[in-house]
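re: that chain from earlier
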Amino acid sequence: MAIFLVIFVHCLVNSADAADVNHEKDPTVKQKEDGIIKSLVQIGIPMFFYISGIGATFFNTEESNYGIFVGGKVLRLLVPFVIAIFVFLIPRLYFGQQYEDFTRNDGEIQNNYWEYQKGALPTIYLKLSWLWYLPALFIDCMLTYPLLRWSIRRSK
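^ sequence. v structure.
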């Protein structure tokens, strides 16, 4: 359900942009679009964090320490994040240069992919787009580990 809601919100935003809806002629369309997006975003993303929290409670903090917890989160969140930057994000930015100004390095269209990649890497953190969720979830897990450990001890 959470995945469906997040995908639906992204499709709604992109379809309005692709349809070239003129919000100045009919401002009620923009108000309805914003209302739907705000309503659905308030459900989808927090639901992901909730599901992640439920999943974290299966980690046995009594037998495994913080280092093992961090190692597991690095393997599950940060490794896919780094791989996705090179496999999905940079190619998406490269092919989007013709259509979106923010994808261009120094405001110029780069035709050589490898040169584009070298130029994009220093500022890639500004263009994370949908990948923001993985490092945010990692930071959230690191900050909430003491609460997880306390709650598991308390439940026993």
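The mean pLDDT is 82.
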